[in-house]
Amino acid sequence: MRSTRWNFNEVILICAVLVVQAFTGTYGINYGRIADNLPPPESVVTLLKAAKIKNVRIYDADPAVLKAFKGSGIEIIVGLGNEFLKDISMSQDRAVDWVKQKVEPFLPATHISGIAVGNEILGGANMELWEILLPAVKNVYNALERLNLAHKIEVSSPHSEGVFATTFPPSAGAFKESVMPYMRPLLQFFSHINSPFYINAYPFLAYMSDPAHIDLNYALFLKNPGIYDAKTKLHYDNMFEAQIDAAYFALEKIGFDKMEVIVSETGWASKGDESEAGANVKNARTYNLNMRKRLLKRKGTPYRPKMVVKAYIFALFNENSKPGPTSERNFGLFKPDGSIAYDIGFTGLVPSHASSFLASIKVRRQDWFRSLKIVWIRMLCGAMVLIMIS
Question: Which domain of life is it from (predicted)?
Answer without folding.
Answer: Eukaryota
